[in-house]
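User: I'm writing a tutorial on reading structure tokens. Could you give me a worked example: one chain, its sequence, then its tokens, then a sentence or two explaining what the tokens reveal?
Assistant: Sure. Here is the example chain.
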Amino acid sequence: MIKIFILAYLIGTIPTDTSQYFQIGKSFNTMEECKKELTLNSRTVPGIYDITLYFIKQGNFKWDWVTAFCYDSSTKEKFSIYPQYDNGVPEGIKNLLENKL
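And here are its predicted structure tokens:
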């Protein structure tokens, strides 16, 4: 089974203290289907992935995403996306990525 997961943290906190994995409910038959859904750009906000915008809205803008990925539980294959930061990856996010992935 292939699913989308999002690693996120509560905004305004230390990312390593509040990080959680969230699973998106939809399943996919192939990794290509999952990748297509994961990388779909928002029609309303240019340059933003639709799935991450949906996640942020569903969390009432309390969570920020660090990475989102497709994961195939049978093959362990993983395809990840990351947000772009204007001034490089913030230190707290860098620490979270090093410890959680």
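What the tokens reveal: DSSP finds four helices and four strands in the chain. The longest strand covers residues 63-72.
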